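Suppose a classmate hands you a notebook page containing two proteins, each written out with its sequence and a corresponding row of C-alpha cells. How would you begin to make sense of it? This section walks through that situation. The first entry is reproduced here exactly as it would appear on such a page.
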Amino acid sequence: MQNRDEKVAALKEKKALEQTLIQLKDYKDEDMRRHFYLTQLKHSVYRSFDALNSISQEMPMLEHRSELIRKQGNPHIQEPMPEQKPMKVMHIGKEDLEGMPDLF
C-alpha cells in the first residue's frame, strides 16, 4: 500500500506525463518522436500499476464475498414464485360508473 504522499506524487507525475503527451502529439523530428513514445510508455506503466493496485484492493473484498456465499448461500438467487390463482375478471358497465368521480 502506498501512503498518501506517494499517491499524490504519482498522480502529479501522471498528470505531467499526460500534459507532455499532449504537447508532443505533433512531433516534428526524431528526438521529439522518441521522447513522445518514451513518455507514452511511462504513462502506460503508471496506468498498469494503478490497475494492479485496484485489483489488490478488490481481491480481499471478493474473497470475503465468496466466503459469505459459501457459508450462507447466494442472496441474489431468488426462489421461484409460487403459482397463483388467476385473477377474477370483473366487468364494469356504464351503469356501474354512475355516481363515481371522473378518473380520465
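The notebook's second entry, a different protein, reads as follows.
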Amino acid sequence: MIGFVFAMALAEPSQIAAFGIGQRTCATALAADKHISGYTWVMGYFTGINAATDAQVGHTTDGYRIVAEVEALCRDEPALQLIDAAERVYIRMRDEGR
C-alpha cells in the first residue's frame, strides 16, 4: 500500500509536500556557480523515495552524477521547483533501470 501511495505522489508532483530547499525554484536552488546548493536534499529525496518504495533507483551511479542530472534539468527549466526536477530525474532513472 505504501508503494502505491508514493507511486501516486510521484505521478502528481504538485501534491507532494516539499520542505527546505526543495520548495525553491531551480533558479534559486542553483548557486552562483550553477551547481545545486542542495546536494544533501537531493540525496535525501532519492533515499526517501527508494526506502518508501523498496527501490534502488540510482544504484548504477553515484550521488554526484544524480545531482548533475538534476542540475542539467534545472538549467534547462529554471522555473521548476527543485522537488519537481528531482522527481523527473528519479522517474527517468527508474524507467531506464538505473
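A careful reader of the second entry would note: The mean pLDDT is 85.
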